[in-house]
Design goal:
By secondary structure, this protein is mainly α. The chain contains 15 helices and no strands. The chain is 66% helix and 0% strand.
Length: 315
């Protein structure tokens, strides 16, 4: 009879999931404190940050909300009841404010629109041409003129407003829109020139060289290559120009003394008389009306504004 023997290997082969077993043993060896760590501290920090941001946003928006609510309150309750939940609603402030001045308030908004339109065209054309010259052309004294242009940003308007008034008075431009529009056609807003210079410098020069091989001069390069690629910078310039010009009060007050030429900011000022008395309800209502164009422009152009700032500031 044949005897069957079973061979026993003293060193059996390692299992296929040795890596899994090693990781399991490592996890088992972790400290109990680490295994029992809770995500609550991280969630509390995140919640605290969001609460702080919401509180800051409410603090920033509260004056605008109060202005909106006050515009629909009766005038005698505006300062007596300062809550943002009106107890009485009176929409007559809008009709009274619209017709309270020498002309309907739309007349003054139209004047502001004319000034804004002229400033927009001037800044977009003149500043972009000056920026192209600084970024792409080689001429004597380019660095010196660029430094002088940057230094002009540091000059406050109060320093130059007196010589400007004397010059425009001699030209007979007082009580016209020319003092507010013509300087924009001469690229006097150095901030926008610098903004576009930074953008143009980020465009590869190989595009210019390829265009020159096709027979393009600087004019066609500027119009057909630089301008289409500079749309984010142009949109940023347009939005800032609109907001700053629409809200401008000081220079428009200096150059426009005829009530027929008043813009919206100056017209709002006329609601307050020389004794300090004011028609608060109609003035708040027309303030809301004058804010609406700025709100719409910022809402529609926010995407281009962020993109323009990002592409001109990050190199």
């Amino acid at each position: 009879m044949t005897e069957v023997r079973v061979r026993t290997d003293p060193h059996p082969p390692a299992p296929r999931d040795a890596g899994l077993a090693a990781r399991t043993s490592a996890l088992a060896a972790e400290s109990p404190a680490r295994r029992q760590s809770s995500p609550w501290p991280r969630r509390l920090r995140s919640t605290g940050k969001h609460v702080a941001l919401v509180a800051l946003a409410v603090a920033m928006v509260y004056p605008l909300i109060w202005l909106l609510v006050s515009s629909i309150k009766p005038s005698e309750l505006i300062f007596r009841d300062v809550s943002i939940i009106p107890t009485q609603i009176d929409l007559a402030n809008y009709t009274e404010g619209w017709n309270a001045l020498l002309h309907p308030f739309g007349h003054y908004m139209l004047n502001s629109a004319i000034v804004v339109l002229g400033s927009l065209v001037g800044n977009l054309v003149a500043c972009s041409m000056a920026a192209y010259a600084f970024a792409r052309l080689e001429f004597r004294g380019r660095r010196v003129w660029f430094a002088i242009m940057l230094m002009s940003i540091m000059l406050p308007i109060h320093v130059v407003i007196v010589p400007q008034y004397v010059l425009f008075s001699q030209l007979g431009w007082i009580n016209t829109f020319l003092p507010l529009i013509v300087p924009k056609l001469l690229a006097t807003d150095a901030f926008f020139v610098f903004l576009m210079v930074q953008f143009f410098r980020g465009i590869p020069r190989e595009l210019d060289e390829a265009a020159r091989l096709d027979g393009c001069g600087h004019g066609r390069i500027y119009l057909r290559i630089m301008m289409p690629l500079a749309m984010p910078a142009l949109a940023t310039t347009a939005i800032f120009t609109f907001i700053w010009t629409w809200n401008d009060f000081f220079s428009q007050l200096i150059f426009l003394t005829n009530p027929d030429m008043y813009t919206a900011p100056i017209a709002l000022r006329t609601f307050i008389d020389s004794t300090g008395q004011s028609s608060w309800g109609p003035m708040f209502a027309m303030s809301i009306v004058s804010i609406l164009p700025i709100f719409l422009v910022f809402l529609l152009g926010q995407k281009y504004l962020v993109k323009g700032i990002a592409t001109t500031g990050i190199k």
